[in-house]
């Protein structure tokens, strides 16, 4: 490009800002992803506050803090969404609609807790794309890669929603906010703990920690291939984290404090090396599972 093509002085402030974003996909991607993550956390936090208000004293961990937070006025569709997610599952007469609401709930949890840990993958793609752009090679926008990544988690959300309906159909209260206790809760923790020691976990984690080789080897100027590449990266991430999502059943599927802790752990786990973090988490989960069994006996 020539210097004149980079001259946006004739545009107003909004036009110059828009042109700058168009020239800098990395900045646009960062802004869009950050906005999406913050929106997901806002909706989930509002849902958790709404759920805490309807619980008796001494309910789920963090209820006392959530009840002290202000209740913001929300549009009707969010109120309806919250009601479907927080109602006993399955909801008679509205099981299909509730299932869709739970799929969206799990997807929002994935966006809030798992998308931040995909930052190394997205950053690596942007760096490769910048190099290709300098060479005047065609580049697929990074958001296509992100869309593929999220498509994998959307598919996983369907499975988690079905599991939610199944588990809470036999739970004491059936409300999604309530922790699953007894054998079911201990089983969820035990599976999550044992998986932390598995070879499959480490293989997936290795792929997540080193995305460059996969992205570089599968580089393409075709949006469809980049979308599939994003889905593949999502599969590796899902392979790392699906078992940790089971912990949410033991603490209450809408416990935003544990959700934040799991999200922080996955971010740290993918940024570090070795197996110490994974195995330490696995040991803690196994001890927790054993303790829950003893208490429930």
What does this structure look like?
The protein has one domain (about 10-295). Helix content is about 75%, strand content about 0%. The protein contains 13 helices and no strands. It has helices at about 15-25, 25-55, 65-70, 75-85, 95-115, 120-135, 140-170, 180-195, 200-210, 210-215, 225-250, 255-270, 275-295. The protein is globular. The model is unreliable at about 1-10 (pLDDT under 50).
Give the H and E element order: HHHHHHHHHHHHH
Anisotropy-based shape: globular
| Sheet having the most strands | none
Number of helices: 13
Q: What is the averaged pLDDT score?
A: 83
Parts with pLDDT < 50 across at least 5 consecutive residues? 1-8
Secondary structure class reads mainly alpha
The CA-CA distance between the termini, in Å, is 72 Å
Keywords:
297 residues; mainly alpha; globular
Gist of the model:
The chain has 297 residues and is mainly α. The protein has one domain. Helix content is 73%, strand content 0%.
List the helices and strands and how they pair.
Blueprint: H1 13-23, H2 25-53, H3 63-68, H4 76-86, H5 95-113, H6 119-134, H7 142-169, H8 182-195, H9 199-209, H10 211-217, H11 223-251, H12 256-271, H13 276-296
């Amino acid at each position: 490009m020539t210097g004149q093509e980079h001259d946006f002085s004739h545009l107003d402030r909004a036009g110059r800002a828009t042109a700058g974003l168009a020239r800098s996909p990395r900045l646009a991607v960062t802004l869009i992803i950050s906005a999406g993550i913050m929106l997901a956390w806002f909706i989930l936090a509002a849902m958790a506050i709404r759920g805490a208000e309807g619980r008796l004293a001494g309910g789920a961990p963090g209820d006392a803090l959530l009840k002290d937070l202000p209740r913001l006025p929300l549009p009707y569709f969010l109120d309806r969404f919250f009601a479907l997610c927080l109602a006993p599952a399955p909801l008679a007469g509205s099981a299909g609609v509730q299932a869709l609401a739970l799929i969206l709930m799990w997807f929002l949890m994935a966006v809030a807790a798992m998308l931040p840990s995909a930052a190394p993958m997205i950053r690596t793609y942007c760096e490769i794309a910048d190099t290709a752009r300098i060479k005047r090679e065609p580049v697929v926008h990074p958001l296509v890669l992100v869309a593929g990544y999220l498509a994998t988690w959307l598919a996983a959300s369907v499975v988690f929603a079905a599991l939610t309906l199944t588990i809470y159909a036999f739970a004491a209260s059936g409300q999604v906010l309530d922790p699953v206790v007894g054998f079911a809760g201990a089983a969820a923790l035990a599976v999550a703990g044992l998986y932390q020691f598995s070879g499959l976990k480490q293989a997936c984690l290795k792929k997540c920690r080193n995305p460059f080789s996969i992205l570089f080897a599968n580089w393409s100027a075709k949006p469809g291939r980049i979308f599939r590449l994003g889905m593949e990266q999502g599969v590796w991430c899902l392979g790392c984290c699906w078992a940790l999502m089971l912990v949410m059943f033991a603490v209450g599927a809408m416990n935003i404090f544990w959700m934040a802790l799991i999200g922080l752990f996955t971010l740290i786990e993918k940024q570090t090396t070795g197996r110490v973090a994974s195995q330490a988490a696995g040991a803690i989960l196994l001890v927790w599972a054993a303790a829950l069994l003893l208490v429930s006996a």
